[in-house]
Protein backbone atom coordinates (compact mmCIF):
# COMPACT_ATOMS: atom_id res chain seq x y z
CA UNK A 1 0.00 0.00 0.00
CA UNK A 2 1.57 3.26 -1.02
CA UNK A 3 0.84 6.02 1.49
CA UNK A 4 -0.74 8.35 -1.03
CA UNK A 5 -3.46 5.75 -1.69
CA UNK A 6 -4.06 5.40 2.04
CA UNK A 7 -4.29 9.19 2.41
CA UNK A 8 -6.76 9.41 -0.46
CA UNK A 9 -8.99 6.65 0.95
CA UNK A 10 -8.99 8.19 4.43
CA UNK A 11 -9.83 11.66 3.09
CA UNK A 12 -12.57 10.22 0.91
CA UNK A 13 -14.12 8.38 3.88
CA UNK A 14 -13.99 11.49 6.10
CA UNK A 15 -15.70 13.55 3.36
CA UNK A 16 -18.38 10.92 2.81
CA UNK A 17 -19.08 10.59 6.52
CA UNK A 18 -19.40 14.34 7.02
CA UNK A 19 -21.93 14.53 4.21
CA UNK A 20 -24.25 11.86 5.61
CA UNK A 21 -27.37 12.73 7.52
CA UNK A 22 -27.85 9.37 9.27
CA UNK A 23 -25.71 9.83 12.34
CA UNK A 24 -27.23 7.53 14.99
CA UNK A 25 -28.16 8.70 18.47
CA UNK A 26 -25.77 10.13 21.05
CA UNK A 27 -25.73 8.22 24.40
CA UNK A 28 -27.75 10.23 26.89
CA UNK A 29 -27.90 7.83 29.87
CA UNK A 30 -24.63 9.53 30.88
CA UNK A 31 -25.94 13.13 30.79
CA UNK A 32 -22.54 14.66 30.07
CA UNK A 33 -22.18 12.52 26.91
CA UNK A 34 -25.67 13.58 25.80
CA UNK A 35 -24.33 17.10 25.28
CA UNK A 36 -21.85 16.13 22.56
CA UNK A 37 -22.40 17.51 19.05
CA UNK A 38 -23.30 14.48 16.87
CA UNK A 39 -22.00 16.15 13.70
CA UNK A 40 -18.40 15.25 14.38
CA UNK A 41 -16.37 12.59 12.66
CA UNK A 42 -12.73 11.61 12.87
CA UNK A 43 -10.46 8.88 11.57
CA UNK A 44 -6.76 8.18 12.04
CA UNK A 45 -4.80 5.28 10.59
CA UNK A 46 -1.26 4.64 11.87
CA UNK A 47 0.58 2.03 9.83
CA UNK A 48 3.32 -0.27 11.08
CA UNK A 49 6.00 1.76 9.34
CA UNK A 50 4.79 4.94 11.06
CA UNK A 51 2.69 6.55 8.32
CA UNK A 52 -0.21 8.54 9.73
CA UNK A 53 -3.34 9.26 7.68
CA UNK A 54 -6.04 11.34 9.32
CA UNK A 55 -9.35 12.91 8.39
CA UNK A 56 -12.02 15.02 10.08
CA UNK A 57 -11.84 16.02 13.76
CA UNK A 58 -8.86 13.80 14.51
CA UNK A 59 -7.41 16.17 17.12
CA UNK A 60 -10.65 16.62 19.10
CA UNK A 61 -10.60 14.63 22.39
CA UNK A 62 -13.63 12.43 23.05
CA UNK A 63 -14.65 10.13 25.89
CA UNK A 64 -13.15 6.73 25.07
CA UNK A 65 -15.57 4.92 27.42
CA UNK A 66 -15.45 1.17 26.80
CA UNK A 67 -12.47 1.38 24.46
CA UNK A 68 -10.55 1.74 27.74
CA UNK A 69 -11.48 -1.89 28.48
CA UNK A 70 -8.87 -3.16 26.01
CA UNK A 71 -6.19 -1.35 27.97
CA UNK A 72 -7.45 -2.31 31.43
CA UNK A 73 -7.55 -5.95 30.29
CA UNK A 74 -3.96 -5.60 29.07
CA UNK A 75 -2.90 -4.14 32.43
CA UNK A 76 -4.79 -6.75 34.47
CA UNK A 77 -3.23 -9.60 32.46
CA UNK A 78 0.16 -8.06 33.14
CA UNK A 79 -0.55 -7.91 36.88
CA UNK A 80 -2.34 -11.21 37.46
CA UNK A 81 -1.62 -13.29 34.33
CA UNK A 82 -4.11 -16.01 33.49
CA UNK A 83 -5.68 -15.74 36.97
CA UNK A 84 -7.80 -12.97 35.39
CA UNK A 85 -9.72 -15.76 33.66
CA UNK A 86 -10.91 -17.15 37.00
CA UNK A 87 -13.02 -13.99 37.32
CA UNK A 88 -14.24 -13.43 33.81
CA UNK A 89 -14.95 -15.58 30.74
CA UNK A 90 -14.00 -15.25 27.10
CA UNK A 91 -17.30 -15.89 25.35
CA UNK A 92 -19.38 -13.38 23.42
CA UNK A 93 -22.44 -12.49 25.46
CA UNK A 94 -25.00 -11.90 22.73
CA UNK A 95 -26.46 -9.39 25.18
CA UNK A 96 -26.29 -5.60 25.52
CA UNK A 97 -23.19 -4.08 27.13
CA UNK A 98 -24.92 -3.41 30.44
CA UNK A 99 -26.90 -6.63 30.71
CA UNK A 100 -27.28 -8.46 34.03
CA UNK A 101 -29.22 -11.52 32.80
CA UNK A 102 -26.34 -14.01 32.50
CA UNK A 103 -24.78 -13.13 35.83
CA UNK A 104 -27.22 -15.09 37.95
CA UNK A 105 -26.97 -18.27 35.90
CA UNK A 106 -23.18 -18.05 35.76
CA UNK A 107 -22.70 -17.36 39.47
CA UNK A 108 -21.51 -13.81 39.13
CA UNK A 109 -18.80 -14.59 36.52
CA UNK A 110 -19.26 -12.20 33.58
CA UNK A 111 -19.11 -13.64 30.07
CA UNK A 112 -16.18 -11.52 28.86
CA UNK A 113 -13.99 -8.55 29.87
CA UNK A 114 -15.62 -6.09 27.48
CA UNK A 115 -19.20 -6.03 28.74
CA UNK A 116 -19.65 -3.74 31.73
CA UNK A 117 -19.81 -6.55 34.29
CA UNK A 118 -16.60 -8.08 32.93
CA UNK A 119 -14.78 -4.77 32.83
CA UNK A 120 -15.78 -4.11 36.45
CA UNK A 121 -14.24 -7.49 37.41
CA UNK A 122 -11.05 -6.55 35.51
CA UNK A 123 -10.93 -3.17 37.27
CA UNK A 124 -11.15 -5.02 40.60
CA UNK A 125 -7.99 -6.97 39.66
CA UNK A 126 -6.11 -3.73 38.88
CA UNK A 127 -7.31 -2.09 42.09
CA UNK A 128 -6.13 -4.87 44.44
CA UNK A 129 -3.21 -3.70 46.56
CA UNK A 130 -3.74 -0.05 45.58
CA UNK A 131 -5.74 2.95 46.61
CA UNK A 132 -8.34 3.92 43.97
CA UNK A 133 -6.37 7.08 43.19
CA UNK A 134 -3.22 5.06 42.49
CA UNK A 135 -5.08 2.61 40.25
CA UNK A 136 -6.59 5.48 38.25
CA UNK A 137 -3.12 7.00 37.91
CA UNK A 138 -1.67 3.66 36.71
CA UNK A 139 -4.29 3.34 33.99
CA UNK A 140 -3.93 6.95 32.84
CA UNK A 141 -0.13 6.73 32.76
CA UNK A 142 -0.37 3.50 30.75
CA UNK A 143 -2.46 5.31 28.13
CA UNK A 144 -0.02 8.23 28.09
CA UNK A 145 2.90 5.83 27.70
CA UNK A 146 1.26 3.88 24.85
CA UNK A 147 0.22 7.01 23.00
CA UNK A 148 3.51 8.71 23.83
CA UNK A 149 1.56 11.75 24.96
CA UNK A 150 1.43 13.11 28.53
CA UNK A 151 -1.43 15.41 27.54
CA UNK A 152 -4.03 12.61 27.75
CA UNK A 153 -6.40 13.37 30.62
CA UNK A 154 -9.49 12.21 32.48
CA UNK A 155 -12.62 14.28 31.93
CA UNK A 156 -13.82 14.64 35.51
CA UNK A 157 -17.22 15.99 34.46
CA UNK A 158 -17.89 12.78 32.53
CA UNK A 159 -16.70 10.64 35.46
CA UNK A 160 -18.96 12.56 37.88
CA UNK A 161 -21.89 12.38 35.48
CA UNK A 162 -21.49 8.62 35.15
CA UNK A 163 -21.17 8.24 38.91
CA UNK A 164 -24.43 10.15 39.45
CA UNK A 165 -26.31 8.06 36.88
CA UNK A 166 -24.51 4.74 37.47
CA UNK A 167 -27.42 2.76 38.91
CA UNK A 168 -27.07 -0.08 36.45
CA UNK A 169 -23.32 -0.50 36.99
CA UNK A 170 -23.90 -0.41 40.77
CA UNK A 171 -26.44 -3.20 40.36
CA UNK A 172 -23.96 -5.29 38.33
CA UNK A 173 -21.13 -4.75 40.81
CA UNK A 174 -23.26 -5.46 43.87
CA UNK A 175 -24.64 -8.59 42.26
CA UNK A 176 -21.11 -9.86 41.53
CA UNK A 177 -19.97 -8.88 45.02
CA UNK A 178 -22.82 -11.00 46.40
CA UNK A 179 -21.34 -14.01 44.58
CA UNK A 180 -17.89 -13.26 46.03
CA UNK A 181 -16.39 -12.46 42.62
CA UNK A 182 -15.06 -9.00 43.59
CA UNK A 183 -12.36 -8.45 46.25
CA UNK A 184 -12.51 -4.70 46.80
CA UNK A 185 -15.32 -2.42 48.05
CA UNK A 186 -17.86 -1.86 45.28
CA UNK A 187 -17.66 1.93 45.51
CA UNK A 188 -13.86 1.87 45.12
CA UNK A 189 -14.06 -0.40 42.08
CA UNK A 190 -16.74 1.75 40.46
CA UNK A 191 -14.78 4.92 41.19
CA UNK A 192 -11.83 3.52 39.22
CA UNK A 193 -14.11 2.14 36.49
CA UNK A 194 -15.93 5.46 35.96
CA UNK A 195 -12.63 7.29 35.76
CA UNK A 196 -11.02 4.99 33.20
CA UNK A 197 -14.15 5.16 31.06
CA UNK A 198 -13.87 8.98 31.28
CA UNK A 199 -10.38 9.13 29.74
CA UNK A 200 -10.48 11.62 26.87
CA UNK A 201 -8.38 10.98 23.77
CA UNK A 202 -8.20 12.06 20.16
CA UNK A 203 -8.30 9.60 17.27
CA UNK A 204 -4.65 10.29 16.65
CA UNK A 205 -3.76 9.38 20.25
CA UNK A 206 -5.99 6.31 20.31
CA UNK A 207 -4.65 4.88 17.04
CA UNK A 208 -1.11 5.42 18.33
CA UNK A 209 -1.93 3.70 21.64
CA UNK A 210 -3.27 0.64 19.78
CA UNK A 211 -0.15 0.03 17.74
CA UNK A 212 1.29 -2.68 19.99
CA UNK A 213 -1.75 -4.85 19.22
CA UNK A 214 -1.07 -4.61 15.50
CA UNK A 215 2.62 -5.34 15.99
CA UNK A 216 2.84 -8.59 17.99
CA UNK A 217 2.76 -6.78 21.33
CA UNK A 218 5.64 -4.42 20.55
CA UNK A 219 5.50 -0.63 20.27
CA UNK A 220 7.04 -0.29 16.83
CA UNK A 221 8.72 3.09 17.31
CA UNK A 222 10.69 2.01 20.39
CA UNK A 223 10.88 -1.77 20.07
CA UNK A 224 9.47 -1.93 23.63
CA UNK A 225 7.47 -5.10 24.29
CA UNK A 226 4.17 -4.20 25.99
CA UNK A 227 2.86 -7.79 26.00
CA UNK A 228 4.00 -11.09 24.48
CA UNK A 229 3.06 -11.93 20.91
CA UNK A 230 0.71 -14.63 22.18
CA UNK A 231 -1.07 -12.21 24.50
CA UNK A 232 -1.47 -9.58 21.78
CA UNK A 233 -3.05 -12.22 19.54
CA UNK A 234 -5.41 -13.28 22.30
CA UNK A 235 -6.50 -9.74 23.14
CA UNK A 236 -7.23 -9.27 19.43
CA UNK A 237 -9.28 -12.49 19.45
CA UNK A 238 -11.44 -11.19 22.30
CA UNK A 239 -11.83 -7.85 20.53
CA UNK A 240 -13.09 -9.67 17.44
CA UNK A 241 -15.58 -11.87 19.29
CA UNK A 242 -16.72 -9.51 22.07
CA UNK A 243 -15.65 -5.95 21.17
CA UNK A 244 -19.06 -4.82 19.95
CA UNK A 245 -21.33 -6.67 22.44
CA UNK A 246 -24.40 -8.07 20.69
CA UNK A 247 -23.24 -6.32 17.52
CA UNK A 248 -19.94 -8.27 17.39
CA UNK A 249 -21.08 -10.78 14.76
CA UNK A 250 -22.38 -8.08 12.45
CA UNK A 251 -19.20 -6.04 12.92
CA UNK A 252 -16.97 -9.03 12.08
CA UNK A 253 -19.14 -9.74 9.04
CA UNK A 254 -19.04 -6.19 7.73
CA UNK A 255 -15.63 -4.90 8.85
CA UNK A 256 -13.59 -8.06 9.47
CA UNK A 257 -11.21 -6.70 12.10
CA UNK A 258 -10.70 -7.04 15.85
CA UNK A 259 -12.09 -3.83 17.33
CA UNK A 260 -13.46 -2.27 20.49
CA UNK A 261 -16.18 0.34 20.68
CA UNK A 262 -17.33 2.74 23.38
CA UNK A 263 -20.56 4.66 23.98
CA UNK A 264 -18.64 7.90 23.41
CA UNK A 265 -18.71 6.86 19.73
CA UNK A 266 -15.07 5.78 19.43
CA UNK A 267 -13.81 2.53 17.92
CA UNK A 268 -10.25 1.19 17.96
CA UNK A 269 -9.67 -1.37 15.19
CA UNK A 270 -6.55 -3.48 14.71
CA UNK A 271 -5.22 -4.64 11.35
CA UNK A 272 -2.66 -7.22 12.53
CA UNK A 273 0.75 -6.66 10.98
CA UNK A 274 -0.47 -3.55 9.22
CA UNK A 275 -2.08 -0.74 11.13
CA UNK A 276 -4.00 0.58 14.11
CA UNK A 277 -7.11 2.59 13.30
CA UNK A 278 -9.27 4.89 15.45
CA UNK A 279 -12.59 6.34 14.33
CA UNK A 280 -15.01 8.55 16.19
CA UNK A 281 -18.57 9.62 15.53
CA UNK A 282 -20.72 10.18 18.64
CA UNK A 283 -24.06 8.88 17.27
CA UNK A 284 -24.71 5.23 18.17
CA UNK A 285 -26.70 2.40 16.60
CA UNK A 286 -29.18 0.26 18.54
CA UNK A 287 -26.38 -1.94 19.95
CA UNK A 288 -24.59 1.08 21.45
CA UNK A 289 -21.81 1.13 18.84
CA UNK A 290 -20.84 4.12 16.71
CA UNK A 291 -23.10 4.17 13.65
CA UNK A 292 -20.84 6.06 11.26
CA UNK A 293 -17.72 4.68 12.90
CA UNK A 294 -18.69 1.18 11.83
CA UNK A 295 -19.65 2.31 8.33
CA UNK A 296 -16.34 4.17 7.95
CA UNK A 297 -14.36 1.09 9.00
CA UNK A 298 -16.35 -1.06 6.60
CA UNK A 299 -15.42 1.33 3.78
CA UNK A 300 -11.76 1.35 4.85
CA UNK A 301 -11.38 -2.44 4.96
CA UNK A 302 -13.34 -2.90 1.73
CA UNK A 303 -11.40 -0.28 -0.20
CA UNK A 304 -7.99 -1.38 1.08
CA UNK A 305 -8.67 -5.13 1.35
CA UNK A 306 -7.67 -5.00 5.01
CA UNK A 307 -9.96 -7.65 6.54
CA UNK A 308 -8.32 -10.47 8.53
CA UNK A 309 -10.47 -13.03 6.72
CA UNK A 310 -8.79 -13.11 3.36
CA UNK A 311 -5.82 -11.83 1.43
CA UNK A 312 -5.84 -8.07 1.00
N1 LIG B 1 -18.93 3.85 30.99
C1 LIG B 1 -19.95 3.21 30.21
C2 LIG B 1 -20.88 2.42 31.11
O1 LIG B 1 -20.43 1.83 32.03
C3 LIG B 1 -19.28 2.35 29.20
C4 LIG B 1 -20.25 1.64 28.30
C5 LIG B 1 -19.75 1.53 26.89
O2 LIG B 1 -18.93 2.29 26.42
N2 LIG B 1 -20.34 0.61 26.17
O3 LIG B 1 -22.05 2.36 30.90
Task: Summarize the SSE layout with pairings.
Blueprint: H1 3-19, E1 25-26, E2 42-47, E3 52-56, E4 62-63, H2 68-80, H3 101-105, H4 116-127, H5 132-147, E5 153-154, H6 156-164, H7 167-178, H8 186-197, E6 199-201, H9 203-209, H10 211-214, E7 218-219, E8 224-225, H11 229-242, H12 248-254, E9 259-261, E10 266-271, E11 275-280, E12 283-284, H13 291-304
Antiparallel strand pairs: 1-12, 2-3, 2-11, 4-6, 5-6, 7-8, 9-10, 10-11
Helix pairs in contact: 1-13, 2-4, 4-7, 4-8, 5-8, 5-9, 6-8, 7-8
The structure holds glutamine.
Glutamine binds at residues 65-66, 97-98, 116, 162, 169, 197, 262-263, 288.
Spans of at least 5 consecutive residues with low confidence: none
Shape estimate: globular
Total domain count:
2
Helical/strand content category: alpha+beta
Mean pLDDT: 96
- The gyration radius over C-alpha positions equals 18 Å
Report helical residue fraction: 40-55%
How would you describe this structure to a colleague?
The protein is of the alpha+beta class. It has two domains: about 5-60 and about 200-305, 3-Layer(aba) Sandwich (Beta-lactamase); about 65-200, DD-peptidase/beta-lactamase superfamily (Beta-lactamase), CATH 3.40.710. It has 13 helices and twelve strands. Strands 3-2-11-10-9 form a five-stranded antiparallel β-sheet, with helices on both faces. Strands 4-6-5 form a three-stranded antiparallel β-sheet. Strands 1-12 form a two-stranded antiparallel sheet. A hairpin with a 4-residue loop joins strand 2 and strand 3 (about 50-55). Helix 1 (about 5-20) packs antiparallel against helix 13 (about 290-305), helix 2 crosses helix 4 (about 115-125) and helix 4 crosses helix 7 (about 165-180). It is globular, with a radius of gyration of 18 Å. The model has no long low-confidence stretch (mean pLDDT about 95). The chain binds glutamine. The site of glutamine (GLN) has 11 residues, from loops. The site of glutamine has 11 residues, from loops. Its EC number is 3.5.1.2. Homotetramer. Belongs to the glutaminase family. GO terms for molecular function: glutaminase activity. Keywords: Acetylation, Hydrolase.
